[in-house]
Specification:
The chain is an alpha+beta fold. Helices cover 45% and strands 21% of the residues. The protein has one domain: Glutaredoxin, CATH 3.40.30. It has a four-stranded mixed sheet with strand order 2-1-3-4, with helices on both faces. α1 runs parallel beside α3. The termini are close together.
Length: 85
């Protein structure tokens, strides 16, 4: 299973929903980068993703996007193959 990295904050319902969906898919380890604890991390996230909202999720080197993007991948049957690589 590829590494999963998620830029998140402590009180983000979409971050929690993304984590639950990933756990349901068998992901047991998510590298959480808390952008609410360090403004430099928020700047890094915006620079590399081009987005300002959390969560921002990476599966391996693939930038998935936010929870809505993750959920759409799952609904379209595209999430499992990404996690299986």
């Amino acid at each position: 299973m590829p590494n999963v990295k998620m830029y998140c904050t402590a009180v983000c319902p979409y971050c929690s929903m993304a984590e639950r969906l990933l756990n349901k898919k068998g992901v047991t380890r998510i590298e959480k980068i808390r952008v609410d604890l360090d403004p430099a991390l928020m700047q890094e996230m915006m620079r590399i993703t081009g987005r300002r909202t959390v969560p921002q999720i990476y599966i391996g080197e693939h930038h998935v996007g936010g929870f809505d993007d993750l959920s759409a991948l799952d609904a379209g049957g595209e999430l499992d193959p990404l996690l299986a690589v």
